[in-house]
């Protein structure tokens, strides 16, 4: 009954068919039509499978209606589209275990999905995979306030966790522009970095323990809350950054910090990228113990967000902008440090202009200029998005290279990101997607990244879009080891196929 899209369509009214066919075949089209990918040897969802899922979860936690499936089949930027015909919404680890045991036995491919905010298609189905959404797994299990250890289910939204901690004078170590919708399980599965890496590091260093379910339904309990635990292999790290290809993360224990008492945000205008680097080195020199974030935004990125979202730079127009955040425990001490730093930068002609605030509301307003840039993408045609790590000396060279390489083939090439950890988000805006344009950009952009000793994936993972370029970054021996681990843990290959390893 549910073997393919055409059979689903046959069950609808002719008018509904027309509407859904239009959705399926309007651009962006099915991912499989725009990319060179072949469906794996998996079974299709049949009525007997649906009956099992209904008995396990009930009707209310199974989506099969086309209108309900839309948001789960299409990525956040609406560039990729899968053809899943069912979404399952478990509430417990035990339900996830039973779902995977059943899917593995019946050879049904699955696509784990959290907040679905990634940019490489890691959580978007490619064909008709069974989507397992963790959005109902959103309970905070415990908080050790003295030790600052939070334990929660994987579907907890990042912003909700941070607000919960704020009421208890703690702060979550991770902060992302997508914090209002991304989920901690997805953050862990992609080893998210975000805006606070300079001070708190990425999730690899903050996750104390986790619980995950293997493809065969076996529940793996690594949910320790010990900061030091060297009793054997650190197997939890297999799941941090594995993008749901080795197992589904169901619970997480995270080390949180005391919430800072003081906060300052500076927004600066600079003449060129060399000045940006000098300002960053000076910030590290003068304020290293209180430096939380150091973000860079180029002029095209600022023009995009101000023109498309009707926002405004508080300091006017400059070739480059820097957003600096400091947090600490002593307001007077921190303010003095920030003021001395800014005065020194002005005297050394590192910066041309700037504004600084310690008021939370004003600081949030400044942060919006940086965090809302991805939101403006949808108004700029089709945007090829690249999340790259580069040595600081080469950080902006790639943007200049791509701007020259693209010429008049694109209307905007721009870069912004976390210079504090070498992560740049490089975007190329064109009128519309075409396979020819993608072939023109890739693998050239990745070859240039390698030339500059960078990484083609900084914090979003390899997902679907970058998987075929893994061999550019990893040696054959490393990839073989990854494949061996995958084969051992998921011999039927049902977990997030077409992602990371191809």
Please summarize what this structure is.
The chain contains 19 helices and 18 strands. The protein is α+β, with helices and mostly antiparallel strands. The strands form four sheets. It has a seven-stranded antiparallel beta sheet with strand order 15-12-14-13-17-18-16, sandwiched between helices.
List the helices and strands and how they pair.
Blueprint lengths: L4 H6 L3 H12 L5 H4 L12 H11 L4 E2 L2 H8 L13 E2 L4 H13 L4 E4 L16 E4 L6 E5 L4 E5 L4 H9 L3 E2 L12 H6 L7 H4 L6 E7 L5 E4 L25 E8 L1 E2 L3 E9 L2 H15 L3 E8 H10 L11 E9 L2 H17 L5 E5 L2 H12 L1 H4 L5 E8 L7 H10 L5 E7 L4 E8 L4 H7 L2 H8 L18 H4 L2 H14 L13
Parallel strand pairs: 2-4, 3-4
Antiparallel strand pairs: 1-2, 5-6, 6-10, 7-11, 8-9, 8-10, 12-14, 12-15, 13-14, 13-17, 16-18, 17-18
């Amino acid at each position: 009954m549910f073997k393919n899209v055409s059979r689903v369509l046959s069950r609808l009214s002719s008018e509904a068919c027309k509407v859904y066919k239009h959705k399926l075949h309007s651009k962006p089209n099915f991912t499989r039509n725009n990319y060179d990918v072949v469906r794996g040897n998996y079974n299709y969802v049949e009525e007997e499978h649906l009956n099992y899922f209904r008995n396990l979860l009930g009707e209310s936690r199974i989506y099969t209606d086309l209108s309900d499936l839309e948001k789960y089949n299409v990525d956040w930027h609406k560039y990729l589209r899968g053809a899943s015909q069912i979404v399952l919404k478990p509430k417990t680890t035990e339900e996830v275990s039973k779902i995977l045991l059943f899917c593995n036995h019946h050879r049904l491919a699955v696509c784990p999905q959290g907040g679905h905010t990634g940019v490489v298609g890691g959580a978007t189905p490619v064909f008709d995979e069974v989507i397992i959404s963790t959005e109902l797994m959103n309970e905070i299990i415990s908080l050790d306030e003295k030790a600052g250890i939070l334990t929660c289910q994987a579907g907890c939204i990042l912003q909700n966790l941070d607000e919960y901690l704020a009421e208890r004078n703690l702060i979550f170590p991770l902060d992302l522009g997508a914090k209002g919708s991304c989920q901690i399980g997805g953050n862990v599965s992609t080893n998210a970095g975000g805006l606070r890496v300079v001070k708190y590091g990425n999730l690899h260093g903050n996750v104390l323990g986790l619980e995950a379910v293997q493809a065969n339904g076996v529940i793996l309990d690594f949910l320790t809350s010990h900061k030091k635990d060297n009793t054997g292999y650190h197997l939890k790290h297999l799941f941090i950054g594995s993008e749901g290809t080795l197992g589904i993360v169901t619970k997480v224990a995270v080390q949180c910090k005391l919430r800072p008492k003081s906060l300052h945000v500076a927004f600066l205008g600079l003449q060129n990228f060399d000045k940006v680097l000098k300002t960053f080195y000076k910030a590290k020199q003068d304020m290293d113990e209180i430096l939380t974030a150091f973000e860079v935004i180029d002029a095209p990125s600022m023009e995009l967000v101000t023109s498309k979202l009707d926002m405004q730079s508080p300091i006017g127009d400059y070739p480059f902008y820097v957003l600096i955040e400091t947090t600490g425990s002593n307001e007077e001490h921190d303010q003095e440090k920030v003021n001395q730093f800014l005065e020194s930068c002005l005297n050394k002609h590192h910066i041309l202009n700037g504004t600084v605030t310690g008021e939370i509301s004003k600081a949030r307003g400044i942060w919006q200029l940086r965090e809302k840039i991805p939101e403006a993408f949808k108004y700029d045609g089709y945007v090829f998005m690249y999340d790259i790590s580069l040595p600081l000396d080469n950080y902006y060279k790639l943007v200049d290279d791509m701007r020259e390489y693209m010429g008049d083939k694109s209307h905007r090439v721009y870069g912004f990101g976390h210079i504090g950890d070498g992560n740049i988000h490089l975007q190329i805006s064109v009128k519309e997607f075409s396979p020819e344009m993608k072939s023109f950009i890739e693998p050239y952009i990745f070859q240039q990244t390698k030339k500059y000793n960078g990484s083609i994936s900084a914090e979003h993972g390899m997902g679907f879009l970058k998987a075929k370029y893994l061999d550019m970054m990893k040696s054959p021996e490393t990839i073989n080891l990854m494949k061996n681990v995958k084969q051992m843990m998921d011999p039927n290959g049902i977990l997030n196929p077409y992602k990371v390893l191809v």
